[in-house]
Amino acid sequence: MNNKKHILVLNGPNLNLLGKREPGIYGNDSMESCLAHLRVSFPEVEVEYYQSNVEGELINKLHEVGFTYDGVALNAGAYTHTSVAIHDAIKAIEAPVVEVHISNVYQRETYRHTSLITGACVGVIGGFGMNSYKLAIEALLAL
Ligand code: DQA
After folding, report:
1. CATH number at residue 94
2. Which residues line ligand 1 (CB under 6 A)?
3. Domain encompassing residue 106
4. pLDDT tens column, 76-105
5. Which of 6, 26, 69, 79 is an active site residue?
6. Which residues, in sequence order, are bridge partners of residue 48?
């Protein structure tokens, strides 16, 4: 690891389809363009990226980075609303985790109003489109 800060952007299920998936909700931008923008915006940060549709792989990634990285911006997708295991993984690691949502989940179906991971995270950012990721990194850097 170099002496830059290391932050992982971690995306859960269906977020590999950003840019194609329900553009009325999630917009037209791909994650690749978002990441390029983040890397220009935060030259002092090594912005790493990982996405998986598999719950256990997200947990493995949290374990892998959770004792060496400076923070994680986690959009757990639908696992936000279901996963005690991801909550426990966030609690188990040392790196601060910010919960991220592209959409404002409180304007959507009621089953999206419950997050099982908020209590394990340092805070939540949602509803700002792809800019939510940038705001989450700013929040992590300000801790
Ligand atoms: C989401 C909101 C979740 O409810 C949904 O399941 C997602 C994306 C968001 O970024 O707005 O997959 O986390």
Report:
1. 3.40.50.9100
2. 14, 75, 77-78, 80, 101-103, 105, 112
3. 5-142
4. 999 999 999 999 999 999 999 999 999 999
5. 26
6. 8
